[in-house]
Structures are given as structure tokens and as C-alpha cells.
Design goal:
By secondary structure, the chain is mostly helical. It has a single domain, classed as Growth Hormone, Chain: A, CATH 1.20.1250.20. 71% of the residues lie in helices and 0% in strands. It contains 15 helices and no strands. It has helices at 4-38, 41-68, 72-90, 96-114, 116-126, 131-138, 140-184, 248-277, 282-309, 312-332, 336-350, 353-365, 370-385, 388-399, 403-420. It starts with a helix and ends in a 29-residue tail after the last helix.
């Protein structure tokens, strides 16, 4: 039978494809249409993308805590409904204020509940030894959405308009994402009597239930933990809510990821407009974004392999270096082949960022509090992350060129590479979390589906 973890990867892949493809990648294709409809210049629509990111980040700490408590199916179900409703409502907005409100509430909340933190936490719970590769496969949904959604969105806007395209996106979310979540999402392998990676036994350092009376080592009787005041069994101690803030690795990861996300989001949002400014037709300009996403698929495989077999920190360092090189190439590229070469190098590096972020969290903090740590990191990313898109829009509106913005982003990538040198990964991953008490009974009948 197929290990259920692969179904978790499929659901995560689908959720990321929709949440990022419908809620982010498509905005690059919608950029010109929305600017023409509402005015406000490119910085006006760019602020909407920043609002989306702020809401996403503010929700993440609470989301991470809920995921560690074992509520993934409820969270993703609510997220699918909210995202679909947000897409449908976006088709009805009449001005930038309404656009910001819908983008910052329904769309952002829905994308957050089924997106990065949730999908990464699910996959990290189901895989340990193959975590980087598993996260790489799941997050291919992000890159493939870029390959597919940019040209598809461009074509759909020509055929049915930008409002009709958002209506179609909402319907597809309800038809495909919601049923997959309801059918296959399970928080942890231990909840259904399985082990991470489909292993026959639990991994060293993972959570294992205490032996029953009389089943422990000879001459040793296990001591039952004391009940709480309410009579309920005590919870296994978890990483304290604010404890990661005292960990140097936490801040290294936050700084690196926030600077990368700042530059990445700006380049992804403005690359079609930049290519159009260079004189390329809309289809060729949209293909630049598709090239980034296609190379991102390859990057997820390559950096997943490097991380699982060599070094997560080294893999991240190389990925950031490639993004910096590609961005520097955009400063010099004037011909279409040169632009494609630059975005290809950029996309290869960008493909590794999301899975490597999850891999570094898992290596430094373990499955035990993966969701909580990633959720706590997310709002910490915001002060730097959200600046990129409106900053690039402002630079263009002020100087009629993206050169200053791209130069700034190259500097951010170089600084990130320097900071990575002080990251210290523990030799052994911290222990994993136990299954939720409400589901321990289901583990009595192991399943292999």
C-alpha cells in the first residue's frame, strides 16, 4: 500500500499551487489590468500585495500553535472556503480600498490557512530523514503554479477579463482543494499508527509511547505521570512560546528568509512589467515569470538532494548566491535571451528557499514545535519582507527604471550569505511531538494507506 505521507505531499502540493498561484503569481499578470482599472500607479497595486503579506504574517503564530495541537484538517478546510470566497469577492471590487480590504482579509487569511506554514508543518510531521526532498516536492506546487498561472492568467484575462478570471479561480478552489483536504489530511503519522518516512519503527529521537506496566526493561516499572488538577492527562512539555527568541539560529533564519522574501516577491511581482518596459510583447514578458517558476521546480529537486545528503546551510548559501547572481544579470540584460538567462539562474536559486527554510527549522527545532516556530518566525519576517514590492514600484515611478531596486536586492542577497555563516545546526534534531491524545485510540489499528 502507498505510504499516506505521499498523499500528504499531494494535498500540500495542491494547496500551495492554489494559494500561491491564485493569490500571488497571478498578480504579476494582473498588474497592468489592475493598475489601468484603479489607477494609483504600480506602487498602488504593490501596496495591495504588501497588505496580503502583512495579514499572512500576523496570522502565522496562532496558526502554528494550532497546527502543533493537531487541527490541520479544520484549518485547511476553513482556508479553502475563505480563499474561494476571497477570489470571488475580488471579482466585484470597484476601487483600491475595496481591493485592499478583500486582499488583506479573505484572500490573505485563506491563503495563510492552506499555504506555507500549514503545508510545511504537515510534510515535516510526516518526513524526517527525507524531509528536504519531501518539502521540495510539496513546494513544487509554488513553482509549477508560476509556470502555469502566469501565461494562463494572461490568456484568461484576454478572453474573459480579470474579473471573470477571479471567478474561475474561486470555483476551481472549491472543486479541487476542498475535497482533497477533507479526504486525506492527517496531522501526524503516529495518529494513524504509522511512523515518519514510512519506517517500520520510530526514528531515534522521535516520540514513542511509554511502555505499559510490566512491559518496560526488566526490574523497572514505568511511573505514570501525575494528572492535572482537572483530572485530564498531562500534556507532553513543548517548546515554550517565546523560547526560540533566545536562540541565535532563530534570528539568523529570520533575517535570511526575510531579506530573500523581500527581494523575491518584488522581482516576481514586477518582472513582467520590467520585461514589457524593455520592449518585449506580453506573451514573451509573461514567459519570463514562467521561466523563473520552471527553474524553481528544478531548484527544489536539486537543493532537496543537496540538503538531505550534504548540508542544509550550504544548500541555502548556494541558493541565495544564485538569486543574487540572477538579479545582477537583470541589471545588464537588454536582449530577450539575456533576460531569460538571468531569470533562469534566479529561479534555480529561488526554488530552494521555501523547502530549505522548512528544513533548517526542522534541523534546529525538530518536529515537536515545527509549526509554532515557523508561525512565530512569519510575523518577524514582515518588517523587511513587505517593503520589497512597494519599494520597487516607488523606484520605478520615481526613476522610470528598476535599476536601483535590483541593485538593492543584490545587496540583500550578499548580506544574507554573510549571515548564514554564523548559523549553527545541532548534530541531532530535537525530538518530535506525540500524536494528539484524542487520536491515540485510532493507532491501535495500524494502517498502511
Amino acid at each position: 500500500m502507498v505510504f499516506h505521507g505521499w498523499k500528504i505531499i499531494f494535498v500540500s502540493f495542491l494547496a500551495l499551487f492554489v494559494s500561491v498561484g491564485f493569490g500571488f503569481y497571478s498578480f504579476s499578470a494582473f498588474f497592468v489590468a489592475l493598475t489601468s482599472e484603479f489607477g494609483g500607479g504600480r506602487v498602488g497595486v504593490g501596496i495591495g500585495v504588501a497588505v496580503f503579506g502583512v495579514t499572512n504574517g500576523l496570522v502565522a503564530p496562532f496558526l502554528g500553535h494550532a497546527l502543533d495541537q493537531g487541527h490541520a484538517k479544520r484549518i485547511m478546510t476553513a482556508g479553502a472556503w475563505l480563499l474561494a470566497l476571497g477570489l470571488l469577492l475580488t471579482a466585484t471590487v470597484q476601487n483600491l480600498v475595496q481591493f485592499y480590504l478583500v486582499l488583506g482579509t479573505f484572500l490573505a487569511l485563506g491563503a495563510a490557512l492552506i499555504g506555507g506554514v500549514t503545508a510545511s508543518t504537515l510534510v515535516a510531521n510526516w518526513f524526517v530523514r527525507q524531509r528536504a526532498m519531501a518539502l521540495g516536492i510539496a513546494t513544487m506546487g509554488i513553482s509549477l503554479s508560476g509556470v502555469v498561472m502566469a501565461p494562463v492568467a494572461t490568456r484568461l484575462i484576454d478572453l474573459i477579463g480579470w474579473r471573470g478570471t477571479f471567478v474561475l479561480y474561486g470555483a476551481l478552489t472549491l472543486l479541487f482543494v476542498l475535497p482533497a483536504v477533507r479526504r486525506w489530511v492527517v496531522d501526524r503519522p503516529e495518529d494513524v499508527g504509522l511512523h515518519p518516512d514510512g519506517a517500520a519503527t520510530s526514528l531515534a529521537g522521535d516520540w514513542t509511547p511509554a511502555p505499559a506496566p510490566g512491559e518496560g526493561p526488566a526490574g523497572v516499572e514505568p511511573v505514570a505521570p501525575l494528572p492535572t488538577a482537572s483530572g485530564a492527562p498531562p500534556r507532553r512539555p513543548r517548546l515554550e512560546w517565546m523560547q526560540p527568541l533566545a536562540n541565535r539560529n532563530f534570528w539568523v533564519i529570520v533575517l535570511v528568509v526575510s531579506m530573500c522574501f523581500c527581494a523575491n516577491s518584488a522581482i516576481l511581482t514586477h518582472i513582467i512589467a520590467h520585461a514589457t518596459d524593455l520592449g518585449f510583447p506580453p506573451v514573451e514578458a509573461a514567459f519570463c515569470l514562467s521561466t523563473i517558476a520552471a527553474m524553481g521546480v528544478l531548484g527544489k529537486v536539486v537543493f532537496g538532494w543537496i540538503s538531505d545528503r550534504l548540508s542544509s546551510r550550504g544548500a541555502m548559501w548556494l541558493a541565495v548566491g544564485l538569486m543574487g547572481s540572477g538579479t545582477a544579470g537583470l541589471l545588464r540584460a537588454e536582449t530577450y535571451p539575456a533576460v531569460l538567462a538571468a531569470v533562469a539562474v534566479f529561479g534555480l536559486g529561488m526554488g530552494g528557499i521555501m523547502p530549505l527554510w522548512g528544513t533548517l527549522i526542522g534541523a534546529c527545532f525538530g518536529r515537536r514545535s515545527f509549526g509554532r516556530v515557523m508561525g512565530l518566525m512569519s510575523p518577524m519576517l514582515l518588517p523587511i519582507q513587505v517593503v520589497g514590492v512597494p519599494f520597487a514600484g516607488y523606484v520605478y515611478d520615481r526613476f522610470n527604471s528598476y535599476d536601483l531596486a535590483f541593485t538593492t536586492f543584490v545587496g540583500l542577497y550578499l548580506f544574507s550569505m554573510l549571515i548564514l555563516l554564523i548559523l549553527r545546526i545541532p548534530e541531532q534534531e530535537p525530538s518530535a511531538s506525540p500524536p494528539s491524545p484524542a487520536r491515540l485510540a485510532t493507532a491501535a489499528a495500524p494502517r498502511t494507506e
